[in-house]
Amino acid sequence: MAIDIDTARRVAHLARIRVEEDDLAALAGELSGILNFMEQLGEVDVTGIEPMTSVTPMRLVRRADVVTDGNIQAQILANAPDAREGFFAVPKVVE
């Protein structure tokens, strides 16, 4: 699939990327190359192949899903510039 300069300009606009007019032809060529590569990947026969997340078979180590309070309130509040009654104290910003 070939991308023309107008399509490259629109893609750059949608991606919020400023591309100079002189560079639009190069961008169109790169985008066309990417799409051609994706078309080649679509031609690969993957029937009977399971999807994988890694090339080495590993189980993801997971921690126990338990609710805790951390038990380190004093250590956390020690970093605060101002703490009162066990909470962070911040200046009042609303009158």
Automatic annotation (TrEMBL):
<dbReference type="InterPro" id="IPR036113">
    <property type="entry name" value="Asp/Glu-ADT_sf_sub_c"/>
</dbReference>
<comment type="subunit">
    <text>Heterotrimer of A, B and C subunits.</text>
</comment>
<comment type="function">
    <text>Allows the formation of correctly charged Asn-tRNA(Asn) or Gln-tRNA(Gln) through the transamidation of misacylated Asp-tRNA(Asn) or Glu-tRNA(Gln) in organisms which lack either or both of asparaginyl-tRNA or glutaminyl-tRNA synthetases. The reaction takes place in the presence of glutamine and ATP through an activated phospho-Asp-tRNA(Asn) or phospho-Glu-tRNA(Gln).</text>
</comment>
<protein>
    <recommendedName>
        <fullName>Aspartyl/glutamyl-tRNA(Asn/Gln) amidotransferase subunit C</fullName>
        <ecNumber>6.3.5.-</ecNumber>
    </recommendedName>
</protein>
<dbReference type="GO" id="GO:0050566">
    <property type="term" value="F:asparaginyl-tRNA synthase (glutamine-hydrolyzing) activity"/>
</dbReference>
<dbReference type="GO" id="GO:0006412">
    <property type="term" value="P:translation"/>
</dbReference>
<comment type="similarity">
    <text>Belongs to the GatC family.</text>
</comment>
<dbReference type="GO" id="GO:0016740">
    <property type="term" value="F:transferase activity"/>
</dbReference>
<dbReference type="GO" id="GO:0050567">
    <property type="term" value="F:glutaminyl-tRNA synthase (glutamine-hydrolyzing) activity"/>
</dbReference>
<keyword id="KW-0547">Nucleotide-binding</keyword>
<dbReference type="GO" id="GO:0070681">
    <property type="term" value="P:glutaminyl-tRNAGln biosynthesis via transamidation"/>
</dbReference>
<keyword id="KW-0808">Transferase</keyword>
<keyword id="KW-0648">Protein biosynthesis</keyword>
<keyword id="KW-0067">ATP-binding</keyword>
<dbReference type="GO" id="GO:0006450">
    <property type="term" value="P:regulation of translational fidelity"/>
</dbReference>
<dbReference type="InterPro" id="IPR003837">
    <property type="entry name" value="GatC"/>
</dbReference>
<dbReference type="Pfam" id="PF02686">
    <property type="entry name" value="GatC"/>
</dbReference>
<dbReference type="GO" id="GO:0005524">
    <property type="term" value="F:ATP binding"/>
</dbReference>
<keyword id="KW-0436">Ligase</keyword>
